[in-house]
């Protein structure tokens, strides 16, 4: 199984969420997701200021193989996007949890974070999908 | 349950990500599709293509039969070992499959057909063969390995036995040589020099390992697709199928209408389409900005839809998105693709984007 850091939260659709405090979270796709997609060649990011709804499309990552939607794990507002990915989408492959982050959200309800999956639950979910 | 080639365990041992393809369990990449692509453009890579089916046509009517069966004309093959690319058509002029046929002698031709269509092809070929003195022999006992890239020939030759090495070393492009068990064609699906090697299954695992030890990089179906897309080579099922005429898939050059008296399957339908006119054209596209062209995306000139993409993707060599498309004959030089509701500019190009490591379109 690929790398699943214990300090992050996760979704069924393979996004990771890092709590930055003050109701702000950073969002990316998991190492497992980038492995499934293969080499990324294009990332479409939202506008700063866009509003995000739980479960709605917030970004698109395209690998050589296919385009894949990224879903917002929570309600909030986009306050920053990783502009470096426009020229270097491969950062998502090389560093899914650090340089490959996609965007930051200011959450509508900071408490909603607690309801997301932890690393253990996500690992079990990803393994069940593989079989 | 997907079928496995004899090299299945070798792929897994080399770290392949396996996917289902045409009823087979095949490697899509061994880590990085883009690095595999570059290995073939710049050095040497190898592909397990044992899922494709070799069919031997033997007997005194072999030439006669193939001149009936396929749209290109095997009578053009005068030299033993020469290969020909052709479509096999249905009576409506649609493409049942595309294939390579090698002429060995007047009583023996060897065809290689696609994996996903192999059973259908075999049924069709046998169905067409009544009244001809031929034998149709599917060769599931053979494996096939494509070694491709500017250094492919140099890295492969030392691994061959003495007798076939000499004849393989002097092969002209699109020719093959063989001994009692191995068959080597200077052919491929990447736009680079190299060999396609048909060999007994029992020899395949060792040979694959020897190639790897000689510095030939294992490559999956992912890079095979981006390489063929750059090279301007059609993919059956995407660029043409049973509903599509080769005339609208950039394959008119493979239809031998001369001599006029050769009555191959699909000829009447093609002649009717040519007489009727109003055929779509098959073009290359380059996306002007960022984004990825994908299969089936619609193309627009103003408000009017003028066609769609048949196969598209990212070109690792050009670092741009490229595609093939079927569009109205009067399509302008530039028009638009619609991706996720947004219109982006595309430009028409010739179909061949990269050959022998070099870009052949202006960006």
UniProtKB/TrEMBL annotation, chain A:
Transmembrane segments: none annotated. It comes from the Bacteria. Residues 24-106 form the Lipoyl-binding domain. GO terms for cellular component: cytosol; glycine cleavage complex. Keywords: Lipoyl. One of its GO terms (biological process) is glycine decarboxylation via glycine cleavage system. The modification N6-lipoyllysine is found at residue 65. Pfam families: GCV_H (PF01597). Its cofactor is (R)-lipoate. Binds 1 lipoyl cofactor covalently. InterPro entries: Biotin_lipoyl (IPR000089), GCV_H (IPR002930), GCV_H/Fam206 (IPR033753), GCV_H_sub (IPR017453), Single_hybrid_motif (IPR011053). Belongs to the GcvH family. The glycine cleavage system is composed of four proteins: P, T, L and H. The glycine cleavage system catalyzes the degradation of glycine. The H protein shuttles the methylamine group of glycine from the P protein to the T protein. This is Glycine cleavage system H protein. It comes from Solemya velum gill symbiont.
UniProtKB/TrEMBL annotation, chain B:
It comes from the Bacteria. SUPFAM superfamilies: Aminomethyltransferase beta-barrel domain, Folate-binding domain. This is Aminomethyltransferase. GO terms for molecular function: aminomethyltransferase activity; transaminase activity. The glycine cleavage system is composed of four proteins: P, T, L and H. Gene3D superfamilies: Aminomethyltransferase beta-barrel domains (3.30.70.1400), Aminomethyltransferase fragment (4.10.1250.10), Probable tRNA modification gtpase trme, domain 1 (3.30.1360.120). It catalyses: N(6)-[(R)-S(8)-aminomethyldihydrolipoyl]-L-lysyl-[protein] + (6S)-5,6,7,8-tetrahydrofolate = N(6)-[(R)-dihydrolipoyl]-L-lysyl-[protein] + (6R)-5,10-methylene-5,6,7,8-tetrahydrofolate + NH4(+). One of its GO terms (biological process) is glycine decarboxylation via glycine cleavage system. GO terms for cellular component: cytosol; glycine cleavage complex. Residues 8-257 form the GCVT N-terminal domain.
């Amino acid at each position: 199984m690929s790398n699943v850091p214990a300090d992050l939260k996760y979704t069924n659709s393979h996004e990771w969420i890092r709590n930055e405090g003050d109701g702000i979270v950073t969002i990316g796709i998991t190492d497992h997701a980038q492995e499934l997609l293969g080499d990324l060649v294009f990332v479409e990011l939202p506008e700063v200021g866009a509003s995000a709804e739980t479960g709605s499309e917030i970004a698109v990552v395209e690998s050589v193989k296919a385009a894949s939607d990224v879903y917002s794990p929570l309600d909030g507002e986009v306050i920053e996007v990783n502009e470096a990915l426009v020229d270097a989408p491969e950062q998502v492959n090389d560093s899914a949890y650090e340089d490959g982050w996609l965007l930051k959200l200011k959450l509508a309800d900071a408490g909603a974070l607690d309801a997301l999956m932890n690393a253990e639950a996500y690992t079990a979910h990803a393994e069940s999908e593989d079989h | 349950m997907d079928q496995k080639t004899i090299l299945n365990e070798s792929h897994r041992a080399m770290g392949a990500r396996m996917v289902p393809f045409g009823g087979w369990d095949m490697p899509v990449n061994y880590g990085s599709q883009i690095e595999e692509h570059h290995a073939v453009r710049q050095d040497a890579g190898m592909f397990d293509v044992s899922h494709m089916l070799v069919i031997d046509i033997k007997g005194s009517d072999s030439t006669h039969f193939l001149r009936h069966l396929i749209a290109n004309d095997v009578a053009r093959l005068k030299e033993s070992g020469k290969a020909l690319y052709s479509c096999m058509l249905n009576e409506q002029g649609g493409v049942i499959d595309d294939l390579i046929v090698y002429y060995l002698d007047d009583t023996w031709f060897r065809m290689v057909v696609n994996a996903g269509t192999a059973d259908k092809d075999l049924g069709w070929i046998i169905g067409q063969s009544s009244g001809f003195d031929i034998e149709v022999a599917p060769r599931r006992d053979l494996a096939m390995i494509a070694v491709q890239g500017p250094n492919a020939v140099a890295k492969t030759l030392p691994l061959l036995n003495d007798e076939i090495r000499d004849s393989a070393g002097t092969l002209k492009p699109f020719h093959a040589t063989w001994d009692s068990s191995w068959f080597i064609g200077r052919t491929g699906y990447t736009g680079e020099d190299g060999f396609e090697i048909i060999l007994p299954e029992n020899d395949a695992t060792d040979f694959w390992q020897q190639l790897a030890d000689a510095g030939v990089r294992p490559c999956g179906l992912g890079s095979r697709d981006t390489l063929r897309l750059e090279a301007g080579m059609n993919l059956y099922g995407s660029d043409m199928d049973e509903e599509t005429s080769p005339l609208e898939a950039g394959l008119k050059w493979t239809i031998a209408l001369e001599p006029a008296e050769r009555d191959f399957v699909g000829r009447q339908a093609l002649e009717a389409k040519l007489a009727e006119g109003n055929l779509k054209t098959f073009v290359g596209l380059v996306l002007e900005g960022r984004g990825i062209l994908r299969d089936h995306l619609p193309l627009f000139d103003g408000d009017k839809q003028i066609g769609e993409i048949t196969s598209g993707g990212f070109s690792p060599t050009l670092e741009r998105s490229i595609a093939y498309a079927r569009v109205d004959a009067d399509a302008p030089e530039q028009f638009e693709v619609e991706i996720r509701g947004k219109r982006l500019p595309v430009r028409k190009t010739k179909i061949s984007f990269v050959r022998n490591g070099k870009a052949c379109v202006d960006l």
